[in-house]
């Protein structure tokens, strides 16, 4: 029976393609974001996927997708996917920024925080979508179809918030010990206590190592790290009982996230109402694995093959319920391996950052040299947005800015430094993202009032982690293509797509999905545009 339903839906889609009419819209949009899933990783592992990722890769694959902006962090990246806008417009310029107007000692602001709540701080924050300045797809769907449901599940609060925005029906994220929510008024799903109990029971047990298939075995090579971090490269996710940090950096986190998403599909009957629903699932474990072990060891290999299997199981559940759904999949940013392994693999410029570049060291050094009070620079940045202390006189702020720009520009690990004035004077780019200059990338990360007084770009292949002893050994966040380039996939049952080399942007996902469900968007209301060659029928403007 199920096969017959699917075959009929497939035939309808294909018939409509043949007659150049819009296919019937799907009832459920499933949007996956795989945190730190670079296009480099997708290209490498694509031939080894046999589960859900192989199935989705049979649709339309933009293998040169871009999180086009400079500051390739989780919060900005997730803010682009379902708003259709770059961070310059979403206002989400980073995972955190400095707001010197705040009436609290801590001037750092977390991207998914409501800083007006008494007691909130960048590290002990009150989760909120307040700082996202534009609506997400699910909100716009609700204005057209009041019965439409807008749901998000993730391993990270900021990912769930940025994909479901200001008017979510359900939003759940892992807080390190359990899945929780900021939506106090939403009914607690029956699946929640079951999934949280299963996660707690798993955590209480020690976990044996995973069995590595031959491709992963071949990648096993132990690599030493400087300082007390590592070694890495041969991990198989064996874990001691109670080690929540190790659970988070393993396929177990995505397993829990998908189990909760599946529970919400069942309970809310997503995709089975009269009006279309959207379910955003941000899978965070790949990012934690990348940060903890780098991207080119046995650990990432095991993670991605487990993820492929887990996504396959989730899609099989949707199939088994006869839901008419479509899938988009992308990443919030790419990533980069540890410099120690990169050098072994012939990347001569791969290096760790000189600790002297940290704003917490550079600022006081310049302040002392210029005889100005205070730390000179605020925040704790290794690169990206830098903030001059605005308690100084205007003249002293200018002296600190000029000295800091000169000092960063003179450092051999720095590629470029742009002042806020230079970035603000740069027009928003109108060319494909592959052609953007560095300052154009910074322009799409720039929002007046939130961005820094200047922006520092490290040389390509410089990793902004000097000290590996705190658990993170590799990272992302640069404007270089290893951090910007991400896969963008669209899939529907019965639709056969192709691999496309032409660049696309993650801001194009939202208008493409809107076209797929026949949701009109006001002209020029989003940065992205509907992508041709997908299951969407793009209307000509
Ligand atoms: Zn991320």
Descriptive account of the structure:
It is a single chain. By secondary structure, the protein is of the alpha/beta class. 35% of the residues lie in helices and 14% in strands. It is built from 20 helices and 18 strands. Strands 1, 2, 5, 6, 7, 8, 9, 16, 17 and 18 form a ten-stranded mixed beta sheet that branches. Strands 11-12-14-13 form a four-stranded antiparallel beta sheet. Strand 11 and strand 12 form a beta hairpin. The two termini are 40 Å apart. Zinc ion (ZN) binds next to loops.
The residue ranges in which pLDDT falls below 50 over 5 or more consecutive positions are: 1-19
Give the terminus-to-terminus CA distance: 40 Å
Radius of gyration: 23 Å
Task: Report the mean per-residue pLDDT as an integer.
Answer: 95
Find the structural class using helix and strand composition. alpha/beta
What is the total tally of β strands?
18
Write the layout of secondary structure elements.
Elements: H1 2-18, E1 28-34, H2 39-45, H3 52-56, E2 60-66, H4 74-81, H5 87-90, E3 96-98, E4 108-110, H6 137-144, E5 150-154, H7 157-164, E6 170-174, E7 179-180, H8 191-204, H9 214-219, H10 244-248, H11 251-268, E8 277-283, H12 285-293, H13 298-320, E9 325-330, H14 339-344, E10 351-352, H15 359-370, E11 377-378, E12 384-388, H16 394-410, E13 414-419, H17 420-424, H18 438-443, E14 454-458, E15 462-463, H19 481-484, E16 485-491, E17 499-500, E18 504-505, H20 509-516
Parallel strand pairs: 1-8, 1-9, 2-17, 2-18, 5-6, 5-8, 10-15
Antiparallel strand pairs: 2-16, 3-4, 6-7, 9-16, 11-12, 12-14, 13-14
Helix pairs in contact: 4-7, 8-11, 11-13, 12-13, 15-16
The structure holds zinc ion (ZN).
């Amino acid at each position: 029976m199920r096969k017959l339903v699917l075959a009929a839906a497939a035939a309808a889609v294909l018939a409509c393609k043949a007659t150049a009419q819009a296919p019937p819209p799907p009832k459920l949009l499933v949007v996956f974001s795989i945190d730190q899933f670079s296009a480099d990783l997708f290209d490498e592992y694509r031939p080894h996927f046999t589960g859900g990722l192989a199935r989705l890769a049979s649709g339309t694959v933009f293998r040169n997708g871009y999180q086009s902006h400079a500051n390739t962090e989780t919060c900005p990246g997730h803010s682009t996917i379902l708003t259709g806008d770059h961070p310059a417009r979403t206002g989400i310029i980073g995972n955190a920024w400095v707001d010197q107007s705040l009436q609290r000692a801590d001037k750092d602001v977390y991207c998914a925080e409501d800083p007006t709540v008494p007691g909130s701080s960048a590290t002990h924050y009150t989760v909120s979508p307040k700082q996202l300045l534009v609506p997400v797809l699910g909100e716009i769907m609700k204005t057209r179809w009041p019965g439409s449901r807008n749901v998000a599940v993730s391993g990270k609060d900021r990912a769930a918030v940025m994909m479901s925005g200001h008017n979510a029906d359900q939003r759940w994220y892992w807080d390190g010990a359990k899945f929780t929510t900021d939506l106090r008024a939403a009914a607690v799903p029956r699946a929640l206590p079951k999934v949280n109990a299963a996660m707690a029971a798993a955590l209480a047990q020690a976990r044996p190592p995973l069995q590595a298939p031959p491709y992963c075995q071949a990648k096993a090579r132990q690599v030493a790290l400087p300082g007390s971090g590592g070694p890495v490269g041969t991990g198989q996710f064996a874990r001691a009982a109670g080690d929540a940090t190790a659970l988070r950096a393993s396929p177990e986190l995505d397993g829990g996230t998908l189990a909760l998403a599946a529970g919400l599909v069942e309970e809310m009957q997503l995709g089975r109402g009269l009006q279309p629903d959207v379910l955003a699932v941000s899978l965070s474990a790949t990012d934690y694995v990348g940060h903890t072990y780098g991207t080119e060891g046995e650990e990432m290999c095991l993670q991605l093959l487990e993820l492929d299997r887990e996504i396959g199981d989730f899609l099989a559940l949707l199939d088994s319920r006869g839901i008419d759904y479509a899938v988009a999949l992308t990443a919030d940013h790419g990533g980069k391996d540890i410099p120690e392994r990169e050098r072994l693999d012939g990347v001569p410029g791969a290096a760790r950052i000189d600790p002297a570049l940290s704003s917490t060291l550079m600022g006081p050094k310049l302040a002392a040299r210029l005889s100005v009070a205070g730390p000179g620079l605020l925040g704790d940045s290794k690169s990206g947005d830098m903030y001059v202390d605005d308690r100084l006189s205007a003249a002293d702020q200018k002296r600190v800015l000029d000295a800091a720009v000169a000092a960063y520009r003179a450092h051999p690990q720095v590629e470029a430094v742009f002042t806020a004035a230079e970035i603000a004077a740069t027009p928003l780019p109108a060319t494909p993202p592959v052609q953007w200059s560095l300052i154009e990338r910074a322009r799409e990360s720039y929002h007046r009032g939130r961005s820094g007084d200047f922006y520092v770009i490290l040389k390509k292949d410089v990793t902004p982690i000097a000290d590996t002893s705190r658990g993170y050994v590799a990272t992302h966040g640069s404007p270089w293509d290893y951090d910007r380039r991400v896969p963008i996939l669209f899939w529907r049952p019965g639709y056969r797509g192709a691999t496309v080399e032409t660049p696309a942007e993650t801001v194009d996902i939202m208008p493409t999905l809107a076209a797929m469900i026949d949701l009109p968007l006001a002209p020029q209301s989003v940065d992205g545009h509907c992508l041709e060659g997908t299951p969407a029928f793009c209307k000509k403007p």
